[in-house]
Amino acid sequence: MTSTARDAALHADAGRPSRREQILQAAAQLFAERGSRAVGVDDVGAAVGVTGPAIYRHFASKDAMLAEMLLRISEHLLAGGTDRVAGTEDDPAEQLRALIAFHVDFALDNPALITVQDRDLGSLTDADAAQVRRLQRRYVEVWVGVLARLHPGADAAACRAKAHAVFGLINSTPHSAGRLGRPAMARLLADMAWAAATA
């Protein structure tokens, strides 16, 4: 899989990314491999074929790159999850399948971003981290609403715990995605996520 496909959540046109998008993709891969603190602006510039100072035409700092990529993926997940459940409120099973398929696609396309999110969220400014967490909580609540309709006897705390457990399973792609071809891995993750969410 190319880095463009792998980091598709960073931009709308995965086939023709702008220089800004290329920088974000390269930064995501480098941050995933080394950690954001170990990567310099010159490293990111070299990865996209420009000098380090040229990066400053697009981003004020390395921290600004990190903030934008984590905010974007949080916005992407919230918008995508909300779209998947719209118009099917009377069928929570269908909603859950749609959410699982959406999140599996995201996880398979973006293992580098998952690694960066897990490891480098704490490197954001307090304001940026708070905004990311607000978006993430809203995405979790999309899942909680569906799980609560699917399991009327479960309380919100149990549904929230179940949603986080399913995310952990699906977001294992940085460690598991290369073990099978994409279609087989997508089916495996979807089947396991469905079993966990409906247990």
Structure description:
The chain has 199 residues and is mostly helical. It has a single domain (3-197), classed as Orthogonal Bundle (Tetracycline Repressor, domain 2). The chain is built from ten helices and no strands. The chain has helices at 3-6, 19-34, 41-48, 62-85, 92-109, 111-120, 126-150, 156-170, 173-176, 182-197. Helix 4 packs across helix 6 (111-120) and helix 5 packs antiparallel against helix 7. The longest helix is centred in the last third of the chain and has 25 residues, at 126-150. Residues 1-8 have low confidence and may be disordered.
Average pLDDT figure:
87
Q: Would you report the number of β strands?
A: 0
Topology order in helix (H) and strand (E) letters: HHHHHHHHHH
Q: How much of the polypeptide forms β-strand, as a percent range?
A: under 5%
Oligomer state of the chains in this structure: single chain
Please name the defining characteristics of this protein:
70% helix; disordered N terminus; 10 helices; mainly alpha; 199 residues; Tetracycline Repressor, domain 2; elongated
Topology:
Elements: H1 3-6, H2 19-34, H3 41-48, H4 62-85, H5 92-109, H6 111-120, H7 126-150, H8 156-170, H9 173-176, H10 182-197
Helix pairs in contact: 2-3, 2-4, 2-6, 4-5, 4-6, 4-7, 5-7, 5-10, 7-8, 8-10
Please summarize what this structure is.
By secondary structure, this protein is an all-alpha fold. It has a single domain (3-197), classed as Tetracycline Repressor, domain 2, CATH 1.10.357.10. The chain has 10 helices and no strands.
